[in-house]
Structure formats: C-alpha cells, structure tokens
Amino acid sequence: MEQREDIRRAVFAPVEIIAGRSAYCELITDISPGGAFIESENKLPVGQRIKLSFIFPSYHHTISLAGHIVHRDARGYGIRFVDLPTGRTAAVPAKDAAASPG
Predict the structure, then answer these.
(1) Domain residue extents for the chain
(2) 64-78 confidence digits (pLDDT tens)
(3) Would you call 8 helix, strand, or coil by DSSP?
(4) b/e for 47-86, b at 16 or more Cβ within 10 A?
C-alpha cells in the first residue's frame, strides 16, 4: 500500500471532477501539497486519471490540476496530483495545506 508523504489538512471545498467525458461535482474533505481525498459515491476506478477544479479556502481564484486515483473506499477516493505546472513542487503550498497546530 502506498504511504502518504505529506500531512493533510481538513477542508470542505466543492470540486469539479472531469473523468473522461463525465463531469461530477464532489467535495474535497482533506488536502496536502501532493494530493487530496474526495468524498464521492461515484465508482471511479483506482488508476483513473482525472482533472480537478476548485477554489482553495485561502485563495480567491480557481485551481485546476490533474491527478489520478490512488485508492478508493466507501466514502470516496484518494487523489495524487500529477503534471504540476513548471516550477511547482506542490499543488497547494505546504503552508496552506499543512495541518493546523493542535
């Protein structure tokens, strides 16, 4: 099983998912610089490449990224971001996606 490399932050952000020719409105429930968990009842398969568009709570513009599904459970699926824009090592800056101190 793949292990997470980044700490995730709880968020509740609507996200548009495009998988092939289908589009879905879902909810990101946690995010890190390298991936996210998306709450969904859609049965997209592990390995499926998707496009995501969302507004991160601390930003004022839409973030559009590619990713692929790395795992699935009854609540939804985990995404790893891929093909980040040149010069970016993370989809969301670590300072924004890091877990808040307790």
Answers:
(1) 9-85
(2) 899 999 999 999 999
(3) coil
(4) eeebebebebeeeeeeeebebbbeebeeebbbbbbeeeee
- In the chain, the amino acid numbered 68 is H
Give yes or no for a contact between 44 and 19, defined as CB atoms under 8 angstroms apart. Answer: yes
**CA separation for the pair 36, 7 (Å, rounded):** 10
- Residue 68 tokens read as 């692929």
* Average per-residue pLDDT for the chain: 81
Span 39-55, pLDDT tens digits = 999 989 999 999 999 98
Report CA-CA distances (Å) from 17 to 59, 94, 100: 19, 23, 27
Please give the class, per CATH, of domain 9-85: mainly beta
What is d(CA 22, CA 33) in angstroms, rounded to the nearest whole number?
26
Task: Answer with the residue of higher pLDDT: 43 or 60.
Answer: 43
Which residues are paired to 65 by β-bridges?
52
- pTM for the full predicted model: 0.77
